[in-house]
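User: Could you check the structure of this?
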Amino acid sequence: MIDNTHNYLTVVIPTHNRADDLVACLISLSDAGIGQDQIIIVDNHSQDDTIERITQSFPKITLI
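Assistant: Sure, the predicted structure tokens are below.
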């Protein structure tokens, strides 16, 4: 049996103006069982709708 009580994995994703790719990546991570609380997005001042899409669709992800 796998013990999932301790989540030792944190995924850090740097991004800049790649909203579509980022959303696809986040969906893939979710499908793989990675929780939103284990993901940190580091946005490099995107000028597209990256921030809005992430905060609306993935509210538990840490966005820097």
